[in-house]
Amino acid sequence: MIISSTTDYREAARRHLPPFLFHYIDGGAYAEQTMRRNMADLQDLALRQRVLKGVGQVDLSTRVFGEDFALPVALAPVGLTGMYARRGEVQAARAAASRGVPFTMSSVSVCPIEEVQPAIDRPMWFQLYVLKDRGFMQNALDRAWAAGVRTLVFTVDMPVPGARYRDRHSGMSGPHAAMRRMLQAVTHPGWAWDVGLMGRPHDLGNVSAYLGKAITLEDYVGWLGANFDPSIGWRDLEWIRESWKGSMVLKGILDADDARDAVRFGADGIVVSNHGGRQLDGVLSSARALPVIADAVKGELTLMADSGIRSGLDVVRMLALGADAVMLGRAFVYALAAGGALGGEAGVANLLDLVASEMRVAMTLTGARAIGEISRESLVSAGLVA
Ligand code: FNR
């Protein structure tokens, strides 16, 4: 199979993964309207072609939270990344490090912090949810800091899990889910090793590290489901702000008032995000929310954005709308899950190369030599999305 874009990686992942895993990654909440709008609203933004600007060599590098980035991109935290390729968190982290960008480890990982951070030569970022089990949160923060993590991504848009129709249909959630997952994995061609994660106790990432024992995948998902905390408010985050000495980024902000509250709270950054359309269907796409938020808080904290980015052109569009840097979610996961020689670490590294080369073309043809030269002037229709 010839790979030239995220669309190809998505198709490779669809062929390689058991259906319940592909749909878990690919799907969104309810009728998936926000998920579709994330992509459509970005792609509808017309880049403003400028010619004969003598652009020459384009510089994609930037600095965020005192860290050098080879391009203004980080890998988003994605739960169960270790299910999409063998020791998937390690593979994705190595690919990101090799391309000079950060990998964000989800707290819902298969590999523990202590396995992933030593495998790379730059600090990874660590993502945490607000969970009822504050002991788990403290334990994860302590272990992340001890391992060398300095950037904490705190996800605030998951006080309750969003309902995803596809997961009900595929057997990823709902009654008899565990049984169906096992059957699908066992019967799927080429999917043997991960069956080891199904049904029997396994060393499962940060939760096993905290509980001090091996657990089954079903226990893991059950533990997480019982731990979402819908009562969470700004005050519940203060102890984290005070005890975490590194940068703290709040992920899942979609409203300018919340962005202003994040500034008052003392966040170092925010990620404008609707969780890739996986939480509340019907909310604004990131591309529509971002310019309003940029008008409210740009310059007061680091402004990141995700949801719907599928190419280097989309990265340039998000920067034009006001983001300092972006996160890639499904785009890198499809590459990781592409299987065989196409996927894994090599797949994610290649995906980042594709994004970088697309960015170079977009910047050259919009007349931007460096990341700081991308602005709303790089778009024809910026005014239409606000
Ligand atoms: C996610 N996302 C996510 N976010 C987070 O903070 N913690 C997590 O554990 C997860 N898990 C997760 C699993 C899967 C399969 C997906 C696709 C996404 C959301 C993720 O960080 C990011 O916000 C979105 O993926 C961005 O949207 P796109 O780029 O996928 O459209």
From TrEMBL:
The keyword Flavoprotein applies. Residues 1-384 form the FMN hydroxy acid dehydrogenase domain. It is a peripheral membrane protein. Substrate binds at residues 24, 129, 164, 278. The active site is at residue 275. Its main location: membrane. It is found in: Cell membrane. Keywords: Cell membrane, Flavoprotein, FMN, Membrane, Oxidoreductase. Its cofactor is FMN. Transmembrane segments: none annotated. NCBIfam families: L_lactate_LldD (NF033901), PRK11197.1 (NF008398). Belongs to the FMN-dependent alpha-hydroxy acid dehydrogenase family. Catalyzes the conversion of L-lactate to pyruvate. Is coupled to the respiratory chain. This is L-lactate dehydrogenase. It comes from Novosphingobium clariflavum. The gene is lldD.
